[in-house]
Design goal:
Length: 217
Amino acid sequence: MSKNYIDINKKSYDLLALEYEEKYKNNEGANYFYKLIKDFVLKRRKKDFTNMLEIGPGTGKLLKTFEDNNIRTTAVELSKNMALLASKSSPQSTIINNNILNVDFSSNQFDFILAMAVIHNFPEKDLIKLLNKIKEWLKDDGYFILDTTNNNITESGYFEKEDYNKQVIRYRRKWKKEDLNCFLIENGFEINELINYVDDTSGKEWLIYALKKAKKI
């Protein structure tokens, strides 16, 4: 697939940034989700000093949650407008406005890497590149936390962003749970936990994963 999908997605999220901020401000469903993810991470935290990377932090609400829990946070955000909002929401976080595929970190740098509603923005070939980067950056006892929607079939293409006033399209790979499970395992991860979460606002079923790097044989 052409790298043009990156430019299309970047433009889409730049256009939607302010609507994102307004939509999730004091949103009961969003607040429940943030608490769910916070508890999902904190129950796995083993030490006081913790480094976290969030890929695609959006408006930065989760970053702020983890900064408030004494986790040192770094984030990489493709959209300039989203990155500005994330910096405002979580001023103590380090925000890098760039394509995550063009960024490098040290080996074994992070205890947690989060990618909330992110992996479905990559075609399979580039997602494999991203997963390889994550395995390099993640500590051996660290966790990769991700979520995406569960779909009836696995398919990809350019789809209009739903539930927003501005009609924009972006690249989206829709995953069926069984296909995604196999894909993650084939690319070097073990599924530590998988929970299903239904968003009452949209009716979408979300899959929330805690993954560990597969042990080398």
